[in-house]
Amino acid sequence: MTSTKTSSGRALSLSSGRCFYLRASAYQYRTLVLLYLLGAMIVILLCPTDVAFISSETLTGILWLFGLCWTSVLIWQWVALRHWQHSITLLARQKHDSQPRFLLDGIEMQCHKTSRVLPWCSLLYYQQYDLPQGEHMDSGRKKVLLVFADMLSEDDYRYLCRWLLDSAR
Length: 169
Known about the structure:
With 169 residues, the chain is an alpha+beta fold. It folds into two domains: 103 residues, no CATH class; 56 residues. β1 and β2 form a beta hairpin. α1 runs antiparallel to α2.
């Protein structure tokens, strides 16, 4: 039986915990490429070629500036996606827990019943478990983590989906 400490120093039992390491998915990279192509199509198809109050040189400059900004933002996102990674450890459900808990990069989180399971991805809605003194659980902002099926092995993704479906009960 192994245990770990949370950010508040509390010891957690990981006897039935399962650890996953998430890295960027091929679906995420494809989405960035599609966004880039969508932006390029918008610039090409929707921008008028003859505008009465703007000269063609000014319009061309604006389009080049938009294209340069669009390209730089998507390159920045591509680089950020290459370094994106998380570790998730699913914790055993305790008798006093109303919702299942897990560790996200070592910080204890609580899973919400609104989490969804789809064939190609799972939406994991969560919130930090140990909130500062005086904050109520509903006062914190829910966050979402998209786990695509190709981020994990088939067995690990199936296990995560079962855990999420069990937490929705």
